[in-house]
Amino acid sequence: MNRNIKKLMSGHKNFMWFLSVTIMLSFMATFANAQSGKVDFSGNWVLNESKSNLGDNGGRRGGGNFVAKQEANLLTVDRTRTNQDGQTTTTTSKYTLDGKESVNTTGRGDSKSTAKWSADGKSLTIVTKFSFDGNEMISTEVWTLPDAKTVSIAATRKNRDGEDVKTTRVYDKK
To answer: Helix, strand, coil proportions of the chain in percent (round to 5)?
Structure first.
């Protein structure tokens, strides 16, 4: 009987050790993800025009409400806009979050984007190159989360005269 108790206790100790290590590793993985410091832009976002600086032309280009889904290395943005004819359209853009180039296709052709995190992980800069009327255009967007319920996207692009056009679109979480 003593042997059976010793066996049982030995098995119990091994089980407890295994359980303790498993729990500890689980906490470490969760803590490491939380400490990566990178903000998460996931959510359903609605343009707040009163808080935005949309520029001289209304800054509608790139505006509209959007839904963002952020996974380990991918940001997917489903953007809904109303065009000049009053029709609502949705476009999907996908950006890898490791600095590698992403290609997105729209009705106007392909665009090539790179997305890079700031050193502190608090902002994401997306640089997009595309052709418009035979000219290569470059836009830069800097995404930040001023708070948990707000996304701010500061954008810079050149107009047809080569001058920088700057806008800031602020979105509220729905």
So the answer is: 20, 50, 30
pTM summary value = 0.74
CA dihedral 71, 81, 144, 40 (to 10 degrees): -20
b/e string for 49-80 if b means 16 or more Cβ within 10 A?
A: eeebebbeeebbebbbbbbbebeeeebebebe
Give one word for 12, left, alpha or beta, with left for phi > 0 and alpha for psi -120 to 50.
alpha
C-alpha to C-alpha distances, 87 to 80, 81, 82, 84, 90, nearest whole angstrom:
10, 8, 5, 7, 10
Q: What is the pLDDT of residues 27-37, one digit of tens each?
A: 443 333 344 68
* 80 token code pair: 């809904």
Neighbour count for residue 6 (Cβ, 10 Å): 10
User: Rounded CA gap, 79 and 65, in Å?
Assistant: 6
DSSP letter (8 states) at residue 53: B
